[in-house]
Amino acid sequence: MSYANLSNRPSLDHYWMPFTANRQFKAAPRMLVSAEGMHYVSDDGRPVLDGTAGLWCVNAGHGRRQITDAVARQLATLDYAPSFQMGHPLAFDFAERLARIAPGGAAAGLDRVFFTGSGSESVDTALKIAIAYQRAIGQGTRTRFIGRERGYHGVGFGGISVGGIVNNRRVFPQLPGVDHLRHTHDPARNAFAKGLPEHGAELADDLERLVALHGAETIAAVIVEPVAGSTGVLVPPKGYLERLREIATRHGILLIFDEVITGFGRLGAPFAVDYFGVVPDLVTTAKGLTNGVIPMGAVFVSRKVHDALMTGPEAAIELFHGYTYSGHPVACAAGIATLEIYEEEGLLTRAAELAGAWQDAIHALKGLPHVIDIRTIGLVAGIELESRPGAAGARAYNAFIDCFQNGVLIRVTGDIIALSPPLIAEPSHIDEIVTRLTAALRRVH
Ligand code: PMP
Prior knowledge:
Layout: H1 22-27, E1 32-36, E2 39-42, E3 47-50, H2 53-56, H3 65-77, H4 89-100, H5 105-108, E4 112-116, H6 119-136, E5 144-148, H7 157-162, H8 166-171, E6 178-181, H9 187-190, H10 206-214, E7 219-224, H11 240-250, E8 254-258, H12 272-276, E9 282-285, E10 297-301, H13 303-308, H14 329-344, H15 347-363, E11 371-377, E12 380-385, H16 394-405, E13 408-409, E14 411-413, E15 416-419, H17 427-443
Parallel strand pairs: 3-13, 5-6, 5-7, 7-8, 8-9
Antiparallel strand pairs: 1-2, 2-3, 4-10, 9-10, 11-12, 12-15, 14-15
Bound molecules: 4'-deoxy-4'-aminopyridoxal-5'-phosphate (PMP).
């Protein structure tokens, strides 16, 4: 069905849009009707350059025939198979291929894969595996989690509890026993840092403080995004993740990296684990796993954790957990085709080639009205604007509308503009994003 004709627009009354000011949106809707390569097409027929890879997920660009053909073939072959007590070869095949590029390489041992349907499900899965692991090794008192302020780990009750987004926490009840590290954003010391900020590794010692407060014997795992994305691109200070790893190991606490955004090439290495050379015990992924084409997530689990749960009676279910859509055959087909594209086109490391030019282009926005900080790493950028008194987020939102009307899709979170184009971007696309954004920032003055 095509909605490319504006007169064909359906009623806006029934669809309750997620994370959207529905009433505001429905008064002035913005619709995308098709996509190819680096561009969307809006319902009034305009090309819109995708500066955000959809929602940080379309890493190989849009409309990839290799993926859509694989999906179509799979739909015609095996549309669905029960995920419990039954197998289909594609899930094993996809897991094996993922194991070959697993975070940290063979030495890290993160090559056991649990499939989920989304990033939120990956997070809840990782948290549950952490608890089950601690129990399996006789550490059943370890039921607490440590998250981080300004962390985003999806919308499940586990994810919002370990996350540190105030709005989430105000409305919904939280898992008991969760505490938080401070976030690492420190504009006083690190404003306009390029790549990893110099200052703040000592903030990892918050974990030591929380161990002293709660007792190591109560803490199952600590979870962080190596680079926090959705809360405004917070890049970890040099040495921070290493220190977190060291403290967690010393106290028998599992370390979980949430790589739903950073996974699959966003930083210029296959995973943040590879980029930083820091190896956690579990890694959550989704988004780029299937190029966003079919919903899917995956948790990479270390052999240590996996094997500890494989020691009970043989007929027993080792982990009482799973989803109807775990390892969905169509999602696996999309994922396998996606990995093939990543490998054939070198996309898992392409952001490293673009990063220098990207960083220079984005940092050239310094000096524009209200720009108070810029952060870049890999093919990601966060541009923070000074809050307008009494209208937090309004400037960034106006820039978003202005850019969309002028043919570039950016993303805003509060007063921060986040950029993360598909990894197939060419320098000309980077120029266009920066040119449009510059004009928009001048106008929202
Ligand atoms: N974790 C992180 C780090 C994310 O960025 C996101 C989504 N932006 C999620 C979890 C949740 O993923 P999903 O929306 O697929 O549930």
